[in-house]
Amino acid sequence: MDDFYHLVIDALEKQGTAVFAPQFLPPVGPAHVYRRDVDQISKSDLLIAEVSHASLGVGMEIMLAIQLKKPILLFRHKDARPLSFMVKGADGTALFEYSDLSEVTNVLRTRALENMIVAQCPSCNSQVVEKTGAMMICAECRKKHTM
Ligand SMILES: [Zn+2]
Fold first, then answer.
1. 72 Cα–ligand 1 center, Å
2. Residue 39 CA to ligand 1 centre (angstroms)
3. In this structure, is residue 121 part of a structural domain?
4. How far, in Å, CA of 99 to CA of 77, rounded?
5. 31: containing domain
6. How remote is the CA of residue 142 from the centroid of ligand 1, in Å?
7. Which of 5, 44, 70, 131 has its Cα between 20 and 30 A from that of 117?
8. pLDDT at 15 over 90
9. If you measure from the C-alpha of residue 143 to the centroid of ligand 1, how many angstroms do you get, rounded to a whole number?
10. Stated pTM of the model
């Protein structure tokens, strides 16, 4: 799990993206953690979550991002236990299944994260697209559509 986040942070920082990764911050009290995470998600343009393992905290972060209309990229290992329908069916998400971490890097490298918005792809279940002018490119299936 740490490998996943180290890799994501590294890939994003190489692209010049500022990353808030609470899992690598020093331990503080529960109220502080809650307030800090809520504040940071509110300020973020995008949420990236690893959902191979059930986590109440990650689930709460995802729900907050949905409420704030932030695009959410979910990554899940192919061999993980079935994903909760509550997460799988959530608004504003694109889901990527991977068997090797290099596939995660590849997704992050080939997507214009700064252009991502919440919009339904007409071709697949993804609700995250990259907006470029009057065109949108699905974050998941990569099909192009006019907006
Ligand atoms: Zn699509």
1. 14
2. 30
3. no
4. 6
5. 2-114
6. 6
7. 5
8. no
9. 6
10. 0.94
Segment among 13-17, 81-85, 86-90, 93-97 with least mean pLDDT: 13-17
At 107, list the tokens: 């997704």
Residue type, 141: C
* 138 within a domain of the structure (yes/no): no
C-alpha to C-alpha distance for 99 and 13, rounded to whole angstroms: 23
Q: Rounded to the nearest 5 degrees, what angle is found at the Cα of 83, between the Cα atoms of 71 and 106? A: 55
Q: How far is the CA of 36 from the centre of ligand 1 (A)?
A: 33
Compute the distance from residue 70 Cα to the ligand 1 centre, in Å: 17
Residue 140: inside a domain: no
Give the closest residue to 76 by CA, choosing from 25, 18, 90: 90
pLDDT tens string 28-87: 899 999 999 999 999 999 999 999 999 999 999 999 999 999 999 999 999 999 999 999
What's the CA-to-centroid distance between 106 and ligand 1, angstroms?
17
